[in-house]
Amino acid sequence: MEKNWNIRPKMEIADVDSVSQVLQLPPVISMLLMQRGITTQEAARAFFHPKLTDLHNPFLMKDMDLAVERINRAALNGEKLLIYGDYDVDGTTSVAMVYSFLKRHLGEDKLYFYIPNRYTEGCGISYQGIDYAKEKGVSLVVALDCGIKAVEKVAYAKMLGIDFIICDHHTPGDILPEAVACLDAKREDCSYPDKNLSGCGVGFKLMQAFCRVNNYKEQELLENLDLLVVSIASDIVPMVGENRVLAFHGLKKINENPSVGMKAIVALTGLDKKVISISDIVFKIGPLINAAGRMNTGNDAVRLLICEDLEEAQRICLDIDASNEERKGLDRTITKEAKLYISSNSNFKQEKTIVLFNEQWHKGVIGIVASRLMEVYHKPTVILTKSGEYATGSARSVDGFDLYKAVEMCSDLLENFGGHMYAVGLTMKLENVEAFKRRFEEYVKETIIPEQTQPQIDVDTELHLSSITTKFYRLLTQFEPFGPGNMRPVFVSNDVFDYGTSKLVGKSHRHLKLELIEMHNRETMHGMAYFMDDKLSIVKSGNPFKICYSIEENEYKGIKMLQLAVLDIHA
CB-based contacts of 426: which residues, under 8 Å, 6+ apart? Predict the structure, then answer.
């Protein structure tokens, strides 16, 4: 599918030069900062050198005082606590962080943790989890990355004499649960300045407040920042504000002194031989942790992340890795089957959505399959399978389209749903699948705009290849960590030519290895364009063409070289 290039409007040269002078940085770097709203030395300092002192006061979050008071009362009365979280990366890292920290101050004998089983309980708070708490004599549950819509279940717990503290970052419903405290910056009555925290981030703020009230050293809490950065990266929350500060310091922690469990993961994924980045977490560390909850139980992920013995951590890690390999096989098989369904649908081109149901598909991988299909076909996608007497599934959205609202418009057909703009989990009666498919398609067809139905590449600015120097690249690396709201800079270069040596490479000859020159500059620049064999004719035409790309450093046999990571090629 042809991609649209959205090139940001050019800024006034006088404005760029003025900011460049203030910041004492090259014009292109200054322009990239201006696009991010940074025009002063103080703002540039905060961006390039994020400090933990820049974090907001946790007590700005609604109900935070109530939450800390309830934990302290539980500690004073010798009550038992259950740390409860969802089975994904955000949930398991949240539980591991809060459990590890509270264990030091409340004692292990007063603490339990619980992750719901994806297959028998589903996501979020479950009646089984509450019954487990009752069985263990627990009187306070701290729910992480879930619970903000669990009105009936929290009421059930209250009837059993169990209090809840909810730490969530998903969109609340019209009615909040009757919990002691509902910590969620997305509450309409919450004035907390940062609305973008991960579930683990909300748990971190609770522990930060707990430290301050009890005069505990916050440095102890910062020992868990390697868990927090994994949650931020894997849950793909905006890399701005507090998330950027926490991710910046979390990357330092994971690279310099990871916890025992994280050390085992880093070694197994082969990341102990390089500087770990956000993309390494997204594509290697996150999927490994996620595999525990997808294939077996998320409790295994928590056991790994709280482990204090390296040999035991390595054993758990190997078991989870075996599950991850099984997950990859299922992922490939189901994606292939889904594509066959799509190719046999004669109406597919006219439809604006993909909604597929197969009762045999593995519940643990349908979210991944939904993401893959959305990326290939660029349509809001819902993948459903059978779970007991219900159809349950995952939905993923294209850039800019509010999937949560689209699913919400079908809420009368659903048993429950939850999530955010780009990812939603949902459950419905089997007999409602076809009605949901029709309603969802109708709503999306009426509301989606043409730009959202075609892949888009956001380009920051035009750049001459001759401007790409080691010094320029070093300045670009200071924009890290990258993520939504602070994406890796993308450039466009016009009128480039093949030097004559560009060619197809790889086992299947799907990738383009490029060597390029500009009209008035004889220096060459190397690049890689993956899965762009169809662009070879443009490159070899002898005519100038244009490319959009980001810049990366490639190391081969100990030699480092800058190269272009080419995202698209236009004649």
Answer: 382, 392, 393, 394, 395, 407, 414, 416, 417
Q: Is the pLDDT of residue 519 over 90?
A: no
What single string gives the DSSP state of each residue in 173-224?
Answer: -SS----SEEE-TTSTT---S-----HHHHHHHHHHHHHHHHT--HHHHHTT
Q: Are 242 and 55 spatial neighbours (Cβ–Cβ below 8 Å)?
A: yes
Query: For strand 511-518 and strand 503-505, is the pairing parallel, antiparallel, or unpaired?
Result: antiparallel
8-state DSSP, 282: I
Return the closest-CA partner of residue 532 out of 508, 496, 563, 501: 508
Q: How far apart are CA 69 and CA 25, in angstroms?
A: 48
| φ, ψ at 191 (rounded to 5°) | -100, 15
pLDDT single digits (tens) 372-423: 999 999 999 999 999 888 999 999 999 889 999 999 999 999 998 888 888 8
Phi and psi of 100, rounded to 5°? -60, -40
CB 391 within 8 A of CB 435: no
The residue among 1, 34, 2 whose CA lies nearest residue 19 is 34
Cβ atoms of 116 and 128 closer than 8 Å: yes
Q: For residues 46 and 38, give the distance between their C-alpha atoms in angstroms, rounded to a whole number.
A: 10
E strand or H helix at 555, and its extent?
Answer: strand 545-556
Find where tokens 């070879």 sit. Answer: 536
Burial 264-279 (b: 16+ CB within 10 A, else e): bbbbbbebeeeebbbe
161 dihedral zone (left: phi>0; alpha: psi -120 to 50; beta): left
Which amino acid makes up residue 172? P
- Does residue 481 have a cis peptide bond before it, meaning omega lies within 30 degrees of 0? yes
What residue type is assigned to position 321 of the chain? D
Closest by Cα among 543, 482, 534, 478 to 511: 534
Q: Do residues 536 and 557 lie in contact, with contact meaning Cβ atoms separated by under 8 Å?
A: no
75-to-56, 112, 167, 178, 251 alpha-carbon distances in Å: 26, 14, 19, 22, 33
- Residue 30 pLDDT > 80, yes or no? yes
Residue closest to 455 by CA, chosen among 400, 537, 535, 512: 400
Axis-axis angle for helices 64-77, 89-106 (nearest 10): 50
Each residue's pLDDT tens digit, 92-127: 999 999 999 999 999 899 999 999 988 888 788 999
- What are the pLDDT digits (tens) for 228-244? 999 999 988 999 999 99
Q: Is the pTM of this model over 0.70?
A: yes
**Which ranges in 393-466 belong to alpha helices (H)?**
403-408, 433-447
Report the first-to-last Cα separation within the chain, whole angstroms. 15
Per the structure block, which two tokens stand in for 170?
Answer: 């998903």
